[in-house]
Amino acid sequence: MGTDTKNNILLAAVKVFAEHGYQAATIRQIVDMAGAKNLNAVVYYFGSKQDLYKAVMEFMFLEAEKFKDEIDMDTFDSLPIEERLASMIRFYCKAYYSIENDLDSDLFRIFVNEARNSSPFFNDVISRHLKPSRDYMCSLLKEYLGPDTPDSIINNCEYSITAQILYGALGWSIISGTVPEQKPFAECVEELAEHVVRFSLAALATYKNPKGS
Q1: CATH code for the domain in which residue 97 is found
Q2: What average pLDDT does the segment 113-136 reach?
Q3: What global pTM score does this model have?
Q4: Nearest-CA neighbor of 200 among 151, 121, 144, 132?
Q5: Do 96 and 179 belong to one domain?
Q6: In Å, how far from its chain's centre is CA 180?
Q7: Given phi > 0 = left and psi -120 to 50 = alpha, else beta, which region is 119?
Q8: pLDDT tens sequence across 40-95
Q9: Percentage of the chain with pLDDT > 70?
Q10: Helix, strand, or coil here: 36?
């Protein structure tokens, strides 16, 4: 029963924080939605509203990382570097845009809200969950472009790849306003992923084989 109550509170918190944001959300709203008997349930299981929100953000990134399970790590390192880069790009697209249910939608809203107006806890969470993936992507770029490639170029290439993916989330109001026929990227994840793969590998090739070299 205790585990069920804790899980219910966490899932209720996701919905309430997604709808109201961290500041406006109340413990009463979360407890009522979770069907818990009293306000002390949050204190008992999580410690405070702040700690509950941190738990929600941890949960958010762990849910996104489930798409890594689709990568066969036993054979991944033996793949050509282009295929490993493509796999990472596909993972990023699925992690950000695969919205299959209301929970995914709520977690996506929380991420977008944090990216636009981050809470004091966001940097710590992304340093533990996003930085390792970014560092790995940079290592793949270094392998592809060559060990002597300046870090500034590696960083710019990484930014350029991830920006193509994140723009659909953080700039959706601009995209939908200027290109009203554009489908939400959650409805065309694979199409987006294959475009970013093709575009990025073509761009990287110009660094690897510059004109006149």
Answers
A1: 1.10.357.10
A2: 90
A3: 0.86
A4: 144
A5: yes
A6: 25
A7: beta
A8: 999 999 999 999 999 999 999 999 888 777 777 778 889 999 999 999 999 999 99
A9: 97
A10: coil
pLDDT at 151: 97
Same domain, 8 and 85: no
Residues 6+ apart with CB under 8 A from 162: 92, 134, 137
CATH code at 7?
1.10.10.60
CA atoms within 13 A on the CB side of 170: 12
d(CA 207, CA 157): 10
User: Domain containing 120: what range?
Assistant: 60-208
Decide: 16 and 34 in contact? Cβ < 8 Å: no
The amino acid that residue 91 corresponds to is: F
The domain tally of the chain equals 2
- Co-location of 75 and 16 in the same domain: no
CA 5 from chain center: how many Å? 27
Mean predicted lDDT score pLDDT of the chain: 91
**Is residue 176 assigned to a domain?**
yes
Alpha-carbon span 44 to 189, nearest angstrom: 40
